């Protein structure tokens, strides 16, 4: 048999195998819609439901607790300077403003298009990927309780607007560790929005600009540049916040990777590594969605295998699961590990110590 004939025969056999494979992988449901086995929406949605339950039970138990749901004690003898306290209040106000901007443009305006121009429109509302990232970030906030679940490695300023912390009601909390510290209510939650959803939006903007300027650059090259930019942004934002406001700080870090060791403003360089990596994950999800024919991120694919009436919920819980998993895997687990094995202790003022 000639090479051409063999190739045709092989291709015919390949197409037959492909048809058989298609029959295995694709099956119409009772409504005539097609089921497929691709996508991770179900797995992430399952984790999203579990995380939502964990977060809500921690929130409810915290709110009804007579000992935990109250401002953290302000310890003597150190006193914060007036100018620093003013800067802390400004930082809180700016953080709430950034959160409000994300809620408005990512959640409310897409859901209610009339808010875009404040006049009636035929445009239908939709729950956008950015909106789901914001909602997922707000639920991922509860992972902050893991920061000091074993040791006090992340210090908080008791002058921040706070009502204590819910850490005691999360799994894996070491009950010998103090839970009486000041989780900020005004600048804490917004960080989970602008360092996740916000960095995703900014990262896409940078990636688009870089691609236009350097069309022959590989995707890996584009993401490397975006990662470096987000690393620098985080380093600047966090160091300014820590030095000027004393809003928070790193009580115990891994010495070889810590700048300004022993100072109240000591800074582990891996903090910016983790935040930049987290931001790039959200950037990648948005870019993948833009490149998808249906505007879907990889996390949402497979939602169509569920009944139509709950497909929106499946997509939402999938993104919630993704946000929680990303925050835990890319930030909390490595930060806790390096903090626990660390030997570099900050010189903490009394108002940043746990009660």
From TrEMBL:
The chain crosses the membrane at residues 43-64, 93-114, 134-153, 191-210, 222-244, 264-285, 313-333. It holds the Pfam family AveC_like. It comes from the Eukaryota. Keywords: Membrane, Transmembrane, Transmembrane helix. InterPro entries: AveC-like. This is Uncharacterized protein. It comes from Zopfia rhizophila CBS 207.26.
């Amino acid at each position: 048999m000639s090479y051409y004939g063999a190739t045709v025969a092989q291709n015919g056999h390949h197409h037959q195998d492909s048809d058989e494979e298609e029959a295995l992988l694709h099956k119409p449901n009772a409504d005539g819609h097609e089921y497929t086995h691709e996508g991770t929406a179900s797995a992430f949605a399952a984790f999203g439901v579990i995380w939502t339950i964990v977060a809500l039970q921690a929130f409810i138990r915290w709110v009804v607790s007579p000992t935990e749901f109250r401002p953290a004690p302000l310890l003597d003898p150190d006193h914060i300077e007036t100018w620093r306290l003013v800067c802390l209040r400004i930082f809180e106000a700016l953080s709430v403003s950034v959160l409000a901007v994300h809620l408005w443009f990512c959640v409310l305006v897409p859901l209610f298009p009339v808010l875009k121009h404040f006049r009636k429109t035929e445009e239908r509302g939709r729950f956008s990927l950015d909106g789901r990232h914001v909602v997922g970030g707000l639920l991922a906030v509860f992972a902050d309780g893991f920061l000091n679940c074993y040791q006090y490695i992340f210090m908080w300023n008791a002058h921040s607007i706070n009502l204590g912390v819910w850490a005691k009601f999360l799994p894996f909390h070491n009950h010998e560790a103090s839970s009486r510290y000041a989780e900020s209510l005004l600048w804490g939650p917004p960080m989970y929005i602008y360092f996740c959803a916000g960095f995703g939006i900014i990262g896409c903007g940078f990636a688009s600009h870089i691609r236009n300027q350097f069309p022959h650059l590989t995707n890996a090259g584009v993401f490397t540049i975006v990662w470096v930019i987000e690393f620098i942004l985080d380093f600047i934002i966090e160091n300014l916040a820590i030095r000027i406001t004393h809003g928070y700080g790193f009580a115990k870090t891994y010495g070889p990777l810590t700048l300004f060791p022993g100072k109240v403003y000591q800074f582990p360089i891996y903090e910016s590594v983790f935040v930049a990596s987290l931001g790039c994950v959200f950037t990648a999800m948005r870019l993948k969605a833009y490149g998808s024919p249906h505007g879907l991120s990889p996390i949402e694919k497979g939602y169509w295998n569920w009944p139509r009436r709950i497909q929106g919920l499946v997509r939402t819980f999938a993104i919630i699961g993704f946000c929680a998993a990303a925050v835990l895997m890319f930030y909390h687990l490595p930060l806790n590990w390096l903090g626990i094995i660390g030997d570099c202790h900050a010189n903490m003022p009394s108002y940043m110590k746990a009660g």
